[in-house]
Amino acid sequence: MTTAESASLRPAHVTRTTYNATSFGAGALFGIGLGISGMTNPQKVLGFLDVTGAWDPSLAFVMMAALAVHITLSRVIRRRGMPLFDRTFHFPTRKEIDAPLVVGAALFGVGWGLAGFCPGPALVSLASAKAPAIVFVASMTVGMMLQHATRRAPGNSASPSQPAS
């Protein structure tokens, strides 16, 4: 998206600096929350997934707290009718479950189970400059590039903005 296209989506009173600062603040708050909850530690995540061994339920509590905040605030925010920094809300419209969704979810789950990272915590963990975080983020980036390239490959009927059917 070009700067002009991005600017045309924002209400007139929202400057690019305000928009970027708010985006940065939201990302920083998310990262701090991941760090405080211990979700940037792959061993904590793997402990949650080890239901037959030394199971650590703390990730479930983090998820429940996140859901409680989301459910509460999304109801309040939707009542506004318009977001603060955009002209409209952008809610998901697709309802169907297709093969790319199932395969992508399975790959995500396998990667999460093997490495103990998912994308958000992995990006936060890059600050540690530890090899597992660097390898995971590099691999994730390659995977995203491959997915993007296959969506644009000749013979693929899906456009980059439209999922394959």
Write the layout of secondary structure elements.
Elements: H1 3-9, H2 16-37, H3 42-49, H4 58-78, H5 99-115, H6 119-125, H7 131-152
User: Compute the gyration radius: what is it?
Assistant: 19 Å
Mean pLDDT rating = 83
Describe the sheet with the most strands.
none
Protein structure class: mainly alpha
> What is the count of β-strands?
0
Q: Indicate the multimeric state.
A: single chain
> What is the H-and-E element order?
HHHHHHH
In DSSP terms, counting alpha (H) and pi (I) runs of 4 or more, how many helices?
7
The backbone outline, from C-alpha atoms, is globular
Number of domain units: 2
Taken as a percent bin, the fraction of beta residues is under 5%
Poorly predicted ranges: none
Helix content: 55-70%
CA-CA gap between termini:
24 Å
Task: Identify the notable features of this structure and list them briefly.
globular; single chain; mainly alpha; 2 domains
